[in-house]
Amino acid sequence: xxxxxxxxxxxxxxxxxxxxxxxxxxxxxxxxxxxxxxxxxxxxxxxxxxxxxxxxxxxxxxxxxxxxxxxxxxxxxxxxxxxxxxxxxxxxxxxxxxxxxxxxxxxxxxxxxxxxxxxxxxxxxxxx
Length: 128
What we know:
With 128 residues, the protein is α+β, with helices and mostly antiparallel strands.
């Protein structure tokens, strides 16, 4: 759904980052993504369903801002504040980690293909 796809690509399970609790999800029509600010010093209490934390006083700050839930919803900031910048930093760090992992994998694939080619060449050179 609009406003959730990008973040569901970065986060695949519920995660707590400081006081932010990130909740990616999915329903029949697409991805969902919500962010909650939980009370200071608390661990998020998952409800086991991939939705809002059970912590008293938690506030949804990113979620459905328009449309009909399950059909045409759009996601965005419900409340803006310092958490927006903090979330952006979390996203940048996650993107950098993914890019580094992809680069590492790419190098591994290149090295594997090179080794396989060298092995094939060596074998073929022994043919008389």
